[in-house]
Design goal:
The complex is a heterodimer of chains A (241) and B (355). With 241 residues, chain A is an alpha/beta fold. Chain A contains seven helices and twelve strands. Chain B has two domains: 154 residues, Nucleotidyltransferase, domain 5; 168 residues, ATPase, nucleotide binding domain (Nucleotidyltransferase, domain 5). In chain B, the strands form two sheets. Chain B has a five-stranded mixed beta sheet, sandwiched between helices. The chains are: A alpha/beta (241), B alpha/beta (355). The interface between A and B is large, with 35 and 41 residues. The structure holds zinc ion.
Chain lengths: 241, 355
């Protein structure tokens, strides 16, 4: 009995196949520019076969739901929905940033875990999709800010000042980021842990599982309104006053 | 052979089940027209977001309507280009997800081949077209004159050098302040106006080739309106629509007539969203009659984007076992010739899978 996990919201395509209790059996991570669309389903097929599982063995699907690249995130969500629909199994929606934070925890030694983890994905114009997490106990982190888009300078305020925070970001350089936090890691160095992170979180009850008629409603977390819609909204509100 | 078709290239999320490329067993289309009307046109990101929500719904409903399950399906067909990339990717991702989960083979379909294949579906009162035939594809995104041989292979005679015919309709509709989508409204108004009230250019009509150009038409219509208004004259919307439509239809029909004479085609197919246009249907039928050729228009509901046409276009490939691999991608631009020879943009060669 197995679980398939996938995420396409970052520059790393991540696919994992694991046991029902969240243990990774086979993982595929590919950082091929513009390759997600071509490679997602073949990667799932490969990971499943590598784990010695058949499609009929799949009892749950986990998908990253963003935020991140709009076009990218829809590939995993549409694929996971179709697979969940055809197989009639639940699809668990895990925010990509949560799984990224989990990947960071997996990479850290248990005795020197950061107090906070700030995950950021470049949203351009000095802004980032992100979320901030705080250590509660035993390696468990809870989200202390909602998933949203903020200027990077504002995100930096959520780090605390004990110097033991960790930043995970999907862009290189930017030494100013590391100076306030204890450390700063690029997503590229952690992406290899994404399959395991997705499988672990997909096993947690706090993430909604969509099945049956509810499955249709499963959609990515975009964290940003479409520009045209936002403008239309602003104009119609302005006009009604 | 039953093929499940999926089409998401623009603003319709559609699923259909077609038997043997001819019999439409069921079709469900979630239209986004209301969603985009307030923006005066399709907003790609809005369309993509809605596709993700609607895609499994339309597939579920189509199985329900056809009273079928996956065990009745032999293959999956999906539009892989051309179109809006974000929209196409939802359909391609979902189709590959379904294929992976069910083990069904998949066929990536060119959108224009789909529009043409709409004419090959049987419908109430019609048997549909059987290739070979000459085909004019006219829609918001395309204006193409093609020959289709008995193996459903295409040869391009010509096409638009700038705007598509449907695009010209939408632009003129916007000039006249008609609500989106304006094309059908122009057609309606044209029937109440005088087609000779204004003289608009017939671009490339003197040209021997089979290319079209419609970009100058919008400016000509705009200039005429401005000129009349500056002189304090009334501008009749009906007359503008009638005169504009007369210009578009004359060029489309005349080029098609010459193409029919050039190729000796006995059957002419007119497909795509603009094939629903009454003015075009009337003029094209008259022309075909004069040539003693047969002209076939798909039923109106199969002229706009739909999944039945995609399933129908996939059938010849499916029958030949020319499946697409799971690496099938979506392409905003995809030349028809490349698709039919399995040449993918970016240097990938799409060979049929060996399994
Ligand atoms: Zn179309």
């Amino acid at each position: 009995m197995g679980v398939i996990a996938m995420d396409t919201a970052t520059n790393a395509l991540a696919v994992g196949v694991g046991t029902r209790d969240g243990q990774l059996l086979s993982g595929v991570v590919q950082r091929v520019p513009r390759g997600h669309s071509r490679l997602l389903q073949p990667s799932v097929q490969f990971a499943l076969a590598s784990a010695g599982l058949k499609m009929a063995d799949v009892e749950r699907i986990v998908t990253g739901v963003g935020p991140g690249s709009y076009t990218g995130v829809r590939m995993a969500v549409a694929t996971a929905k179709a697979m969940g629909h055809a197989l009639d199994v639940p699809v668990v929606a895990v925010p990509t940033v949560d799984a990224m934070a989990r990947a960071a925890v997996l990479a850290e030694a248990a005795e020197v875990l950061p107090t906070r983890i700030l995950v950021m994905l470049n949203a351009r114009r000095g802004c980032a999709f992100g979320a901030c997490y705080e250590h509660v106990e035993g390696g468990r982190f809870v989200q202390i800010s909602e998933i949203q888009v903020l200027p990077i300078v504002e995100w930096m305020h959520s780090l605390g000042d004990d110097g033991r925070a960790l930043i995970v970001r999907d862009w290189a350089g930017d030494s100013a980021l590391a100076s306030r936090a204890a450390r700063s890691l690029t997503w590229g160095s952690l992406a290899g842990l994404m399959p395991q992170a997705l499988l672990e979180l997909g096993n947690r009850p706090e993430y909604a599982a969509y099945v049956g008629d509810d499955l249709h409603a499963l959609a990515p977390v975009y964290a940003l309104a479409v520009e045209a819609e936002a403008k239309w909204q602003a104009a119609s509100e302005g006009g009604s006053t | 052979m039953n093929i499940l078709g999926i089409e998401t290239s623009c603003d319709e999320t559609s699923a259909a089940i077609v038997q043997d490329g001819v019999h439409l067993l069921a079709q469900v289309t979630a239209s986004q027209i209301d969603l985009h009307a307030r923006f005066g046109g399709v907003v790609p990101e809005v369309a993509s977001r809605r596709h993700v929500v609607d895609i499994t719904k339309v597939v579920e409903q189509v199985f329900c309507d056809a009273r079928m399950t996956w065990s009745d399906i032999d293959a999956i067909a999906v539009t892989c280009g051309p179109g809006l990339l974000g929209s196409l990717l939802v359909g391609v991702s979902a189709a590959k997800g379904y294929a992976l989960a069910t083990g069904k083979p998949i066929v990536g379909v060119h959108h224009i081949a789909g529009h043409v294949a709409a004419a090959m579906l049987a419908w109430a009162g019609g048997t549909g077209a059987t290739p070979p035939f000459l085909c004019l594809v006219v829609s918001g995104g395309h204006t193409e004159l093609l020959t289709v041989d008995s193996d459903f292979r295409f040869a391009r005679l010509g096409g638009t050098r700038d705007d598509a015919a449907g695009e010209a309709y939408d632009k003129v509709a916007r000039l006249l302040g008609l609500a989106y989508p304006g094309g059908p409204k122009v057609d309606d108004l044209a029937h109440r106006g005088r087609p000779d009230a204004y003289v608009f250019p017939r671009a490339l009509l003197e040209d021997d080739g089979f290319d079209f150009s419609f970009s100058g038409l919008k400016s000509a219509v705009n200039n005429e309106i401005v000129k009349r208004r500056n002189r304090g004259q009334d501008v009749s919307v009906e007359d503008v629509c009638a005169s504009f439509q007369a210009a578009v239809v004359e060029v489309l029909v005349e080029k098609t007539r010459r193409a029919a004479l050039h190729t000796g085609a006995r059957t002419i197919v007119v497909a795509g969203g603009v094939a629903a246009n009454r003015g075009l249907r009337e003029a094209m039928s008259k022309m075909a009659q004069a040539l003693s050729a047969r002209v076939i228009f798909p039923p109106i509901e199969l002229c706009t984007d739909n999944a039945a046409m995609i399933a129908a276009a996939a059938y010849p490939r499916a029958k030949a076992g020319r499946w697409s691999p799971l690496t099938l991608n979506a392409y905003a631009q995809l030349p028809l010739a490349d698709w039919q020879d399995d040449h993918w943009p970016g240097g990938h060669r799409l060979s049929p899978t060996c399994e």
